[in-house]
Amino acid sequence: MLVFRYTKKLCVDLTSGTLEEYSQFLPYLPSLPLFPNLESTTLQISQIPDPPNPELMALLLPPTLSEANIVRRDWGRLADSFVARVLQILSEEIKPRKLRSLSLGRLTNLDLPSTQHISQLLRSQPALQVVDICAGSGLEILEMLHSTGRLIHLRHLTLHAVQIDTHFERAPHLLFPALETLEIGGSAFFVHGVLDCVGIEKMRSVELLVDELQGGTDAEYSTLLTKCLVSIGRFIHLKKLDLETEMRGSFKLLDHVQTCKELETLRWVGSDLDPSETEESRHKKMTLVWPRLKTLELQSLITSPA
Length: 306
Fold this sequence. Notes:
Blueprint: E1 9-14, H1 16-25, E2 40-45, H2 54-60, E3 67-72, H3 77-94, E4 101-107, H4 112-123, E5 130-135, H5 138-146, E6 156-160, E7 181-187, H6 188-195, E8 205-211, H7 218-232, E9 240-250, E10 265-272, H8 279-289, E11 295-299
Parallel strand pairs: 1-2, 2-3, 3-4, 4-5, 5-6, 6-7, 7-8, 8-9, 9-10, 10-11
């Protein structure tokens, strides 16, 4: 009997061609699970006009999964629609019993049903410890997270908005009380929206990529960047801060994180450095503020000549 008992990890490329080939084998497979001990599946999805076969998805994404990675390999609404249906099948029909890690990558054209399916899946997995979402706009991501509830076991959260938000109202109030590492990429509105409403007690590492404001002014960007660093100042047990800004920020903004006395690693690409100050004197001054500092990397933005 064809059963892969020792397979723990699976990576599958799904295209129109491979999907048809896999589906042809389904009638010949045993009634028992083909991968009874499968723990991790990565689906790499290309443009597929047909909806996913629930039976095939149950084969590739069995209830035993602890890790699911679903990535779109190319751009287009067909791939997004396919992914949305996969997520619906996963949450409503397969219902993983012990999912700990969920990664959703490169989803851009999210419609309302798609965001609802993602929210539904997150809500159905209260034991999640790792969530990585690269999808849509910052507002869509915040709304999805808000609908999930607290996710009290979440340890690691990575969020990247692939569309630029020009503005949105104050973010929904989020609570991830056990969060230890946070990585965010997107507009300054989005980054601040997340920072301002995550749990603070266990936060150890924050990595930010703050995009420039489309149609915004330097003053607006500076104000939002200041708010971001004020929020980070609440993480008093923070050990690592990695910051990349697409517009230059005043070096004095770091005053807002002087409360993070346990900081060991500080990196900022985009800081407005004093050219008269040497790297040695700067490092000496900063170790007085953060006595545990081991790694320091500060870079100004490189601007192209006019």
